[in-house]
User: What shape does this take?
Amino acid sequence: ERYQQILEDLTAIIQRHQPQEAAIETLFWFKNQSTAMQVSEARGLILATLLKAGLKISQYTPLQIKQAVTGYGRADKKAVEKMVRLELAIDQNSAKEILDDTFDALALLLCHQASRKLKKL
Assistant: This one.
């Protein structure tokens, strides 16, 4: 049921916004094998949906994302959140209502944006 929801939501987003490309975080090491399997399955579904839609896909490691956003590849979540807030002008009060996953997605966006700028040079 969860995978069906991911498929439907992502398909609707693609249809509504008609992006040309997408960015996704690569898998990282998980202590819990069950969690790793679920994330792998969801990621596979997401990649298949993006490919089916004909999107160009860029993949980034957590280290690359942190490096692009904070300048330090081993930065903690708080440092990443702070830099995302600064870069996107999100005030402290608004930030309290934003989920960690949303900050992760915004950090991925900023990383991809920086990567695209470098490729144009």
Q: What stands out?
A: The mean pLDDT is 94. Strands lie at 21-25, 56-60.
